[in-house]
Amino acid sequence: MKSDAILKADVLDIIFENKNKLYGAYALRKFYNNRLYKALVAMFGLVIIFISLSFIKKTSHVIFNTGGTICILSAPPKNKILDKKKIEIQKPNAFTKPLPAHSTQALPTNIKIVNKTDVEKIQNFNPNIQISDVDFIGIPDVVAKVNTELTKGLDTLATKPIPKIFVDKETPTEIAEVMPQYPGGMQALRKFLENNLHNPQDLDEGQIIAVKIKFVVGYDGKLKSFEIEEDGGKAFNNEVIRVLKIMPQWIPGKSKGENVSVYNTIPVKFVATE
User: Fold this and answer.
1) Is the pLDDT of residue 265 over 90?
2) What are the CA-CA distances from residue 134 to residues 55, 107, 119, 137, 245 (Å)?
3) pLDDT tens across 130-146, in order?
4) Where does the pLDDT of residue 122 fall: very low under 50, low under 70, confident under 90, or very high at 90 and above?
5) CATH of the structural domain 186-271, one choice from 3.30.499, 3.30.1150, 2.40.10, 2.40.300
6) Per-residue DSSP letters for the chain?
């Protein structure tokens, strides 16, 4: 390329000088701006079309999806208006006859019982009272019989003994209506343990050995079935069990008024003595 043409030439022309411009790379770079302009115009045109469609009024038909069946509902014609004058309420043709006069009776507001039948001495008498011409015969014997049978039934229920609820005393439970307790309460139990428990081994300063024993307080108050829940070592476990075995009988637990066997747990901690 001549030196005077370089100032007027495009950068692509300088790059592709003496190269094959028909291969495609030159055309892609040369007309890139034109293609970009066309793409932007097309994109904005589609956006405008979609926005315009969203403002178009929908048809008057309403479509509901009823599980596979499409129902199209249309509004009734505006010119068809119901004539209110033609709407008439049909009156029932059935005619109810009034009850006979002798079957009704009006009661006075106040009734007083007098000894004589003289009409002039009766107070608050309502002259509009109509006396029925139908006689009603009472049945006092049947009522008395029913009352007698009811009284006999109540007497029979009263004489029957109430069945006693069975309570299993031998099988221990976790909770009872009245839990077992040591005679004298918790303070007496603590004092008994402190007086009878001894460290079976020498402990280092600050060392703590924890033992937890689960046992059964029988329905007779005796302790049995000792189980180790927290192991502190054979010597310490045996020491706690030894003291529990020499412990006096507890006050047994109760359920439904009967003594029952109940589980209980005692935790003990051994510490070094100074």
Assistant:
1) yes
2) 85, 17, 23, 10, 91
3) 555 555 555 554 444 54
4) very low
5) 3.30.1150
6) --HHHHTTS-HHHHHTTTS-GGGSHHHHHHTHHHHHHHHHHHHHHHHHHHHHHHTSPPPS-EEEE-SS-EEEE-PPPTT----GGG--PPPP---PPPPPGGG--PPPS-----SS--GGG--S--TT----S------HHHHHHHHHHHHHHHHHHHHSPPPPPP--SSS-BS--SB--B-TT-HHHHHHHHHHH---SS---TT-EEEEEEEEEE-TTS-EEEEEEEE---HHHHHHHHHHHHTSPPPB-EEETTEEE-EEEEEEEEEE---
Assess contact for 127 and 220: CB atoms under 8 A: no
pLDDT tens-digit readout, 76-109? 455 544 454 444 555 555 545 554 444 333 333 3
18-34 pLDDT per residue, tens: 677 677 777 777 778 88
Q: How many residues does the chain have?
A: 274
Q: At what angle do helices 186-196 and 234-245 cross, to 10 degrees?
A: 120
Q: Is the pLDDT of residue 165 over 80?
A: no
Task: Provide CATH 3.30.1150 ranges for the chain.
Answer: 186-271
